[in-house]
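Subgroup meeting minutes
Present: P.N., E.W., G.H.
Scribe: E.W.

1. P.N. recapped why we're keeping a running log of single-chain structure predictions: easier to compare across weeks, and new members can see raw inputs and outputs side by side.
2. G.H. added today's entry (174 aa).
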Amino acid sequence: MSDPQEGPLLRAPSVSEPTGSSNKHALKVTGLTLLAVVLIAGQAFTTYMVFSQKERLTTLESHSARLEELGRRATVMRSPMKMALPMNSLPLFMDDAVTEEKASTPAPKKELTQCQKEAAGLVKVNVPAFKPSCDENGDYTAEQCWTVSNKCWCVDKNGAMLQDSMVDGPAKCG
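Output recorded in log:
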């Protein structure tokens, strides 16, 4: 690598060259030959792989064409199919249709109370970040507390604050 090349890589052997340079010449020829063999082998392998996958590609293309044909056939309008239904089974058929219809109707939802709406955040409350507590009927519980300020007060079942009931900490309502 450190000695510069002075002539062509391959040249006719001369009589005046010392025997040490013939080894260099042989190594260069061997290296070039090896490089050429590796390149040709790589091209041969690539060609083999392309041709071996060609059959699979052809198979995939034929399957794709068949699926498209089946899709086109399915979209063609056809006349409705006539069904033969014995008359004695008609009442049985009608009974199933009625029970399925009754079973599929959902129970009506119970409307939320004002307390439940405020607790869920559906209605704006006058006190910021306050969520009232509700009982199982949806009415306000007797004691309401605002955790931000640690204040509690008493209310009636409609949420109206009882006079002089606000205290620090738990309120005694009841």
